[in-house]
């Protein structure tokens, strides 16, 4: 019997996202065919098209963040920025990805989960800055109105357990990803920002 529950969960997430991408893509293709056939633009078609785009962006992001990070494959810089850009296109939070090199899948998975955590800490919007120098990474979330003092953030910083929900499950997944990659972050908090720094040996 396969006993690695975390691996099974990630594979299930990968499968769900993979299977949902095709029908969402079919909806977008169908809309394009309608436009080519001469159907006049309308608010209804715009709404359907925007919803399909948003769904595709979320699936692409969650497929990496929640999915299986096994293997030695890498994401190109273009792939990473496309996934992040599409996911945050219509959100109040901006992600400033200041990384110019390709990255291992396991590192990208961890970073996308951490970005989701920082997004939760910026309920009114703000900026998430991601930078790296060699093997040292720094993520900073900033805004005048932050929520980095909630129980799940306290648990993330201290390592204590907290009550999970569907809205905060990415915190536990981020902790598991960091543990798997031997990441021990350092934290710095001010009244309007939270910064974490860590090193990774992934190549």
Structure at a glance:
Pfam families: HPTransfase (PF10090). With 203 residues, the chain is α+β, with helices and mostly antiparallel strands.
- Percentage of residues in strands: 15-25%
Helical region count? 6
Identify the overall geometry: globular
Rounded to an integer in angstroms, the radius of gyration calculated over CA atoms is 18 Å
User: In the CATH hierarchy, what is the architecture of the largest domain at level 2?
Assistant: 2-Layer Sandwich
Number of domains: 2
Low-confidence residue ranges: none
Distance between the termini: 31 Å
Quote the CATH topology of the largest domain.
Heat Shock Protein 90
- CATH homologous superfamily annotation of the largest domain: Histidine kinase-like ATPase, C-terminal domain
Q: Could you describe the largest sheet, including whether it forms a barrel?
A: 5 strands, mixed
Q: Tell me, what is the CATH class of the largest domain?
A: Alpha Beta
**Percent range for helical residues?**
40-55%
Order of helices and strands: HHEHEEHEEHHEE
Annotation, overall tally of beta strands: 7
Mean pLDDT: 86
Spatial order of the strands in the main sheet? 2-4-5-7-6
Q: What class do helices, strands and sheet pairing give?
A: alpha+beta
């Amino acid at each position: 019997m396969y006993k690695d529950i975390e691996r099974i969960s990630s594979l299930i997430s990968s499968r769900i996202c993979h299977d949902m991408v095709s029908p969402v893509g079919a909806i977008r293709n169908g809309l394009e065919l309608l436009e080519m056939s001469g159907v006049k633009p309308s608010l209804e078609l715009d709404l359907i098209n925007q919803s399909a785009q948003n769904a595709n962006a979320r699936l692409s992001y969650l497929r990496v963040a929640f999915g299986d990070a096994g293997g030695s494959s890498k994401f190109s810089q273009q792939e990473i920025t496309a996934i992040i850009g599409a996911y945050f296109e219509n959100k109040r939070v901006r992600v400033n990805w200041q990384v110019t090199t390709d990255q291992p899948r396991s590192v990208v998975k961890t970073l996308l989960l951490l970005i989701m955590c920082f997004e939760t800490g910026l309920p009114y919007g703000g900026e998430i800055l991601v930078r790296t120098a060699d093997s040292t990474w720094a993520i900073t979330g900033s805004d005048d109105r932050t929520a980095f003092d909630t129980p799940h953030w306290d648990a993330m910083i201290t390592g204590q357990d907290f009550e999970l929900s569907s809205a905060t499950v990415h915190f536990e997944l981020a902790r598991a990803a960091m543990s798997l990659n031997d990441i021990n972050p350092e934290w710095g908090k001010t009244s309007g920002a939270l910064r974490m720094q860590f090193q990774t040996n992934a190549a």
